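Predict the 3D structure for this chain.
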Amino acid sequence: MQYKQLSNNIQIPYLGFGTWDVRGKEGLNVLLNAIHVGYRLIDTAHMYDNEEIVGKAIKESKVPREDFFLTTKLDRTFNSYEKAKQGIQNALTTLHVDYIDLLLLHEPYPQVEQMYQALIEAYEEGLIRAIGISNFNEERYLKFIKHCSILPMVNQVESHVYYPQLELKDTLEKHGAFMQSWGSFTEGQRDIFHEERLIEIGRKCQKSAGQVALRYLVQNGIGVIPKSSHIERMEENFNIFDFELDKEDLSLIKQLDEKHSLFNWYSNKRMWY
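Done. Predicted structure below.
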């Protein structure tokens, strides 16, 4: 596993396990399989409605709590300072943990500044080891950090070979923030596993198109949190640290960049912008 040192010097794995549609008894088994494969960064959110089974999987795995890097997120349900403070307590209770490794604000809501203040206080109290944001584009991010006494350590955004957002990653790095990718495989918006360019590079490296897609992001300094319910795919996604893409590979993949979101994420229809 490869790690990134955040601005407050804690280590975060470059690779984690996403849980956005992991629920119920079947979801619990998926999580236990992922932990068995070796995943230790587990990414959840209040919006996913699965924090309870994530906490249960961590407990049932018998892996020490300190070996995990647990991420969750507060959504618009907690859109005030007081609500965010309560949301933090709710997350700790639902996850059955004494602390959260990384807490993010899920989207740039109008009340994000007061919500973030609640995160800062919980961080200073030791309830959270790192704090950050999610789905902030460059304009909103730069506006937001003008008012932060503690800068976000992570910004989790849409990022994949068709929209890696490398310019945003560079801006974040200048301010000490680590960029994480959600949707690394485009969540079905593109047939990434049959992308000929990725297949050809994978053939040369003896890797799959999916592994090449993840490796491209990691080599560009972007964390990834892919999700799969199949243990074979979990293992495949996990094994991306034993090869490197060369300059030609990186250049060829960079040409896939379509320069726009596949999810219309920054549309003016989203009222929190």
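The beta strands are 3-5, 11-13, 17-18, 41-43, 69-74, 102-105, 131-134, 154-158, 178-182, 223-224.
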